[in-house]
Specification:
mainly alpha; 268 residues
């Protein structure tokens, strides 16, 4: 019986045991952390759903429809924070040259883009039910968020267009830093804009939310943030496992036995 395309299980076992203790300790820590993070996400999300559907009062004008606010706004906020986080991680990669930071930046932006699309979809549903239109181009908040999402949507094609891994990581990090810096500047510009159609419920003074709605929104925001962190951690672990598996196969069977990955947007 053989494993890893030709290596015996005993050979694989001996090779894995020969791996540095730091790698095995890191895997154990990440595994425990993922389980704890996942459990915390489930608990907080369950509490948030219970508050949204069974505790928080209905909004006077929109009624039950307003409850989509507790999903739409946290998705948008976490998405924007994820884009900024990707830029910060890219700075660390440019300073250190360590590819693990490129992987983390890639995952942060990838997951933030998914959450951003979710924010656009839930926002369009809310707009159609409230205003009778799927989209209002005259509102700076809506348009600016769409611009940010479209900007980061070019991140994956940029990476895919560069075949050399080192150059791909470097160029992608520069893009992530510049695009990440655009996010807070865009936010400030929108805040200074006048004639907003989109309601301002979150301000430095506490916003226009009553106490129960503010509490429910806060719990929902924490739940979405934990979901983002859990999914990012899971994707990083999956990609690290794939990279380590290829390294094991290369060490056991030689470079000729491992088929090249080819062009890919993901770090390899």
């Amino acid at each position: 019986m053989t494993d890893v395309a030709g290596a015996t299980p005993s050979t694989v076992s001996r090779f894995l045991k020969a791996q540095p203790d730091s790698d095995r300790r890191a895997d154990a820590v990440h595994g425990r952390g993922l389980r704890e993070l996942g459990a915390a996400t489930v608990v907080v999300m369950a509490v948030a759903l219970a508050l949204v559907f069974f505790w928080v009062p209905l909004e006077a004008e929109q009624g039950f429809l307003q409850k989509i606010f507790y999903v739409h706004v946290p998705l948008a906020i976490v998405s924007l924070c994820g884009f900024v986080l990707g830029g910060i991680l890219a700075i660390v990669h440019l300073r250190t040259g360590d590819r693990k930071w490129d992987l983390r930046s890639y995952v942060a932006i990838h997951m933030a883009l998914i959450f951003g699309v979710g924010g656009l979809i839930t926002g369009a549903i809310w707009a159609k039910a409230s205003w009778g239109h799927w989209w209002i181009w005259s509102d700076p908040t809506l348009v600016s968020f769409l611009i940010v999402v479209l900007l980061f949507a070019t991140y994956q094609p940029l990476r895919f267009s560069i075949e050399d891994p080192e150059r791909q990581a470097r160029y992608a990090s520069v893009f992530a830093v510049v695009a990440g810096a655009f996010v807070p500047l865009n936010f400030i510009a929108v805040r200074l804009a006048q004639g907003l159609v989109h309601p301002r419920v979150l301000t430095l003074s506490g916003g226009n939310l009553p106490g129960p709605m503010r509490l429910t929104f806060t719990v929902s925001l924490i739940g979405i943030a934990l979901l983002y962190a859990t999914l990012c951690t899971l994707e990083i672990q999956a990609k690290r496992s794939r990279i380590r598996l290829r390294r094991v196969r290369r060490e056991l069977l030689g470079n000729d036995a491992v088929r090249p990955l080819g062009r890919s947007a993901a770090p390899s």
